[in-house]
Write a structure and sequence with these properties.
CATH topology of the largest domain: Nucleotidyltransferase, domain 5
CATH class of the largest domain: Alpha Beta
Distance between the termini: 17 Å
Strand content: 25-35%
Number of domains: 3
CATH superfamily of the largest domain: ATPase, nucleotide binding domain
Structural class: alpha+beta
Oligomer: single chain
Order of helices and strands: HEEEEEHEEEHEHEHEEEHEHEEHHEHEH
Helix content: 25-40%
Largest sheet: 5 strands, mixed
């Protein structure tokens, strides 16, 4: 490729950014500045032209309130891209927003993006291509459990084994890491979104009440739990009665919501148990000392650590600021790409990263 001085100059003044491209939220970490963006991964588009009308927090406010010619969508499902062009537009918007104080009119940053450990080559390529099309100068991919472990401060380059469970919106990533490599891993497409859907289904079947995704998420955050609480809680839920078609409000308890999401929680517990069953005994011995670290927004589910500790007989703890672990890990990689190059995911046989 011929040397382009304009591209080189724009790259010189562009920021290096780490991105946690999540199903539920997208976070952006700018090198030297920290996390500058934490917004929902929602895009509102015109149905006919498919032109984005709003992105991020502004778009989420419109969910469930759009007119007939407009639709609110999440361009990622289960941690991977389902709407390429809309993901590209969303990435371009966030890259531009991160450069708002920059003197460069068309930023060309180096980008590190987290991807699910179970992503296929096609899914990896889609993330890479979307990032490059959105204006990145160089794009590097890192598996989310490695990035989360780095962001959580786990000693993953040491011989002693560490275990990270990253529960996001679309995927749950389970990984045991030793000497910088993943010894055992699981990528499960059951996470926060699945729990939201469990709540929608439960309320519909139990009360003939139809509620939206936003209300279900609010219920999960407020009174959802994985283990009996010292004091059980209640919450008023609003929706549309499926029999009368009229608005209705009911009160539900944390006991009911725990029952509603129990299936999804049990799948996560069983997946962690399967990973432990496959682990070398030396690493299991290490984990008895260090415990299992939880990251991601889903790790904040009430009493989840108690449930996991009770079933797995290992100490379980939540990382500091768990929602930002992946993007903080991506930021650490940016600070020293050479040192952390072994953590980057290979893209294909051509040698591209």
């Amino acid at each position: 490729m011929a040397f382009n001085p304009l591209s080189w100059l724009m790259g010189l003044f562009s920021l290096d950014i780490g991105i946690d491209l999540g199903t539920a939220n997208t976070l952006v970490n700018v090198r030297g500045k920290g996390i500058v963006i934490n917004e929902p991964s929602w895009v509102v588009i015109d149905k006919r032209s498919r032109r984005p009308l709003a992105i991020g927090a502004q778009a989420k406010e419109m969910v469930g309130r759009t007119p007939a010619n407009v639709v609110a969508i999440r361009p990622l499902r289960d941690g991977v891209i389902s709407e390429f062009e809309i993901t590209q537009a969303m990435l371009g918007y966030f890259i531009g927003k991160a450069h708002q104080q920059s003197i460069v009119p068309m930023p060309r940053p180096r980008v590190v993006i987290g991807i699910p450990s179970g992503a296929t080559e096609v899914e990896k390529r889609a993330v890479y291509d979307a990032s490059m099309a959105a204006g990145a100068r160089e794009t590097y991919l890192i598996e989310e459990p490695r990035a989360a472990a780095l962001g959580a401060g786990l000693p993953i380059t040491e011989v002693r084994g560490s275990m990270i469970v990253d529960i996001g919106g679309g995927t749950t990533e389970v990984a045991m890491i030793s000497m910088g490599g993943i010894v055992v891993s699981r990528s499960l497409r059951v996470a926060g979104d699945e729990m939201d859907q469990d709540i929608v289904t439960y309320i519909r079947n139990r009360y003939n009440l139809f509620i939206g995704e936003r209300m279900a998420e609010q219920v999960k955050i407020t009174i959802g739990s994985a283990f009996p609480l010292p004091t059980e809680r209640t919450m008023v839920v609003r929706g549309r009665n499926l029999v009368t078609g009229l608005p209705e409000a009911i009160e539900v308890s944390s006991v009911e919501i725990r029952e509603a999401i129990s299936g999804s929680v049990q799948v996560i517990v069983d997946t962690i148990r399967d990973a432990l069953d496959e682990a070398p005994p030396e690493i299991v011995a290490d984990l008895l000392e260090t415990g299992i670290c939880l990251a991601g927004g889903g790790s904040q589910l009430l009493s989840l650590t108690e449930r996991l500790s009770d079933e797995l007989k290992i100490r379980v703890w939540v990382a500091e600021d768990p929602l930002t672990c992946v993007v903080r890990g991506a930021g650490l990689v940016l600070e020293n790409l050479e040192q952390y190059s072994q953590f980057l995911a290979s893209l294909d046989r051509s040698g591209n990263r």
